[in-house]
Amino acid sequence: MIETTAAATDADPVQACPIAPVVDLVFSRWTTPILWTLNEYGRQRFVELQRRIGVITPKVLTQRLRQLERDGLITREYFAEVPPRVEYDISPLGRSLAPLFHSLAEWSPNLAKVEAARIHFDTTQPPNRRP
Amino acid sequence: MIETTAAATDADPVQACPIAPVVDLVFSRWTTPILWTLNEYGRQRFVELQRRIGVITPKVLTQRLRQLERDGLITREYFAEVPPRVEYDISPLGRSLAPLFHSLAEWSPNLAKVEAARIHFDTTQPPNRRP
DNA sequence: CCGTATCCGGTTCGATACTG
DNA sequence: CAGTATCGAACCGGATACGG
């Protein structure tokens, strides 16, 4: 590596957490719903995505779709019709994330424990300082 | 379900992406490095975490630690010594995320493909509009 | 050592309006 | 239909300083 000091080595975020790059890639804002929807419902066009995701504005949806296309996780196909039609789909690389989504879905029942932990924390730990 | 209109059903973000709550919980900013470090290096104190993670400020680290403690993913133990000592550790619930982290680590070799896709995109797709 | 308090700058998001 | 342009606002997150 270029950095020579031990401090720099310790301070390297990737060193501290090797999975951080993957997280940034896959779990950035809006990327999860987009990939999930494409993986679950298959190839679809812009407005379908927008309606299924629910609240996202066209601007932000476009931004995220471009990003995911650039990263090779989704594909975009343009049809020069009137009215114009664009179809998005998940790519093979994007589909390779499916097991990951499956793991996440499998863990989701534990959310009940999280909710219980929050209630416990809020009822036992006062908002002010704690020893 | 309680919602009766189809529009509301379609617009429900959780409906659109059931794993979104888990993602928000586990992959919020800084939570991944914190959980990873605790899971990898075991019980440690505040400054150790701070040095391993690298660049995080005490304020933000405290915020995220509190959040994770409240969610039941980590534990905090205070020792009334001089100087005071605090030790954090991953909880059983937090440790149940380990397979997830493992899946992420397994996927990380694909980052090379992402990098290649970006280069391809940047060299073939002009910055201006595309059909 | 382990935080908390305050200020402040930058990203990012949403709302809105408009084009091909 | 599928975006793009512009604007304003909110939300972190970092720097700094201080307290138990």
TrEMBL record, chains A, B:
SUPFAM superfamilies: Winged helix' DNA-binding domain. GO terms for molecular function: DNA binding. This is HxlR family transcriptional regulator. It comes from Kribbella jejuensis. InterPro entries: HTH_HxlR, WH-like_DNA-bd_sf, WH_DNA-bd_sf. Keywords: DNA-binding, Transcription, Transcription regulation. Residues 17-116 form the HTH hxlR-type domain. Pfam families: HxlR. It comes from the Bacteria. PROSITE patterns: HTH_HXLR.
